[in-house]
# Entry
Amino acid sequence: HLKQQCVVVSTQSATDAPCSALSIIYTPEGAYQGGWVYPQSPNLVVVDTNVIANAPKRSLVSGFGDALSTFYEARTCWENPKALSMCEARPTATAYAIGEKSAEMLYGHAEQALEAMDHKAPSDSLEMVVEANTLLSGIGFESGGLAASHAVAQALSWVHSVHHHHLHGEMVAIGLLTMLCMEDTAGLPGRDKDLEKVVDFFIRVGLPVSFEQIHFDPEDSSSVETFIQKALDQWFCHNEPFTVDRTVIMDAFKRADEVGRQAISKKGDDAYKKIHRKRSHESI
# Structure
């Protein structure tokens, strides 16, 4: 807006925002309001992995949630001929490929990168996931497009118990599980296998996979109503290749919770607990 050159120096790798030509605007309370789009991306983005290695591990893990979703949302937009990217144009094959590469790097290097965080020292794996979180996902989501995953995440920011406890990428993690449940129910091929792979990854790195872990109370009717309406209000929610309505969103959201709870019962939640370390006075 000031028409000035811009340099971004990231001290965490928690989202894919630094490389994008977009600023997300929140209310003072932390709820998503929309975004400002600029005519170009920052002139320079600087990320020192020595700094990242000494940042909170939770910030990097949150970035995993945001960056992994880039591929799955880009695929949804690519497969739906009516879907638009954040540039309000059809997604590019390049962005789709970049999103796919981002996911490949996370699946292959995330756990080793977390080991580097434990030692507070950069490694090849940490370099890879920081590139995925920051550069590949940032380019991928803009030109590849968003879908129901980010619509759910932005809607969750309007629920106080969620945004009070959680980072953007953690909300996107729940959003991605919800989107895959939604698409699987609609009969999109391969989504059942994708769901298994994604929830397994989230369990291993410590991202939330259930209502309890994301601090969402399904018995709070006001929160449920706000969540549904805000999700439907996001135009990119309707990049899905089928009609998304209240029932579709809530059924998928509940199924995501069920899938997550089943995964926790089989594989545990040690990684999540290690990262979050809940205080005794915090309610879930």
Observations:
- Residues 83 and 239 are 5 Å apart (CA to CA).
- Strands lie at 7-10, 22-26, 32-37, 44-47.
